[in-house]
Amino acid sequence: MKKSIAQILLDEGYIKNFQLIDDGTQGVIRITLKYGAGKEKVISGLRRVSKPGLRVYAGADELPKVLRHVQGRHDRQEGPSGPCRRRSPGICLVRRVIGMSRIGRAPIAVPAGVEVKIEAENVVTVKGPKGTLTRQFHPNMKIEQEGEVIHVTRPNDAKENRALHGLTRTLIHNMVVGVTEGYKKELDVNGVGYRVAKEGNKLVMNLGFSHQVTMEEIPGITIEVPGPNKIIIHGCDKQQVGQFAAEVREKRPPEPYKGKGIKYTDEVIRRKAGKTGAKK
User: Fold this and answer.
1) How would residue 56 be classed by pLDDT, with cut points 50, 70 and 90?
2) If we measure between CA atoms, which residue out of 126, 210, 201, 203 comes closest to residue 171?
3) Residue-wise pLDDT tens digits, 179-198
4) For residue 249, which of 234, 264, 229, 271 has the smallest C-alpha distance?
5) Does the pLDDT at position 128 exceed 50?
6) pLDDT for 236 beyond 70
7) CA gap 65, 106 in Å, rounded
8) Residue 39: which pLDDT band, with cuts at 50, 70 and 90?
9) Residue 44 parent element (H or E)
10) 139 with 122: CB under 8 angstroms?
């Protein structure tokens, strides 16, 4: 944990360097401080304000200000839409204060057999054994590929760019996983007489209506019916798989009394007690 904090401070320019020293016990971290143009310290002091089991809060106006991001962040926290509006009064998380994004900063590994092409206007195409996916991302995000790794960076710490940073990285990672491993959604069909079957490229469902309900496969989606009460939706696009599975479930959503209908395999239905007859 302490090493991670030191690495964050180094990456954000608050310290000049740090070194891990093995002293035979817990180890020591030696930090080289950084100074500004006027020989002033970037970090003027450190003070422990919280302990395990004892959480200590401080207001935004009680926190000392430093040379880089923190000062601007505290100035913006006064309004109701500031980053700390849900933590009143309290301290923002370290990664929020110094403008970090754990998800956005994480590199994306490109496995063997996957081809990634980054074109103009942030159009990213990922091709793999399961298929090909193409998506255009926001122009503010910078997407670069270095060997077998993809990095996503943002130009500044504006609110919109902070939101897009982690989102862009996650969407690209989902594309890589989709063309290599694929995604699937499993659904269960519960109810007396409720049955499903696959006829060609159509899913035929008997769901207690006077007629059968059919759904046809769409490009990028494969329907598997391993049993009369089981449906599995396969595809390489995570959003498309989830959307198609939701549309199948919508044909007969589970009801809370007997649980009849179509539900996700890992879904828990909150059951209700049935109505009792009136007392005589």
Assistant:
1) low
2) 126
3) 999 999 999 999 999 999 99
4) 264
5) yes
6) yes
7) 28
8) confident
9) none
10) yes
Question: Has residue 238 got a pLDDT over 80?
Answer: yes
Q: 134: closest CA among 244, 237, 217?
A: 237
Residue 142 has pLDDT above 60, yes or no: yes
The torsion defined by the Cα of 171, 173, 178 and 179, in degrees rounded to 10, comes to: 120
User: How many C-beta atoms surround the C-beta of residue 154 within 10 A?
Assistant: 22
Q: Please, are residues 118 and 169 in contact by the beta-carbon 8 Å criterion? A: no
Exposed/middle/buried for residue 172 (C-beta within 10 Å: 0-12, 13-18, 19+): buried
Q: Distances in Å between the alpha carbon of 126 and those of 73, 115, 145, 173, 199?
A: 37, 6, 12, 10, 32
The crossing angle, in degrees rounded to 10, of helices 238-250 and 159-180 is 80
| Rg of the chain, C-alpha, whole Å | 27
Residues, the chain, total? 280
Listed ranges 40-49, 91-100, 234-243; the one with the highest mean pLDDT? 234-243
What is the average pLDDT score of the chain?
Answer: 82
- Closest by CA position to 68, among listed 85, 48, 43, 100: 43
Residue 223 sits at φ, ψ, to 5 deg, of -105, 130
Q: How far apart are the C-alpha atoms of 100 and 194, rounded to whole Å?
A: 51
Tokens encoding 141 = 């995000």
Which of 148, 152, 144 is CA-nearest to residue 105? 152
Residue 198: phi and psi, rounded to 5, are: -110, 125
Cα separation of the two ends of the chain: 68
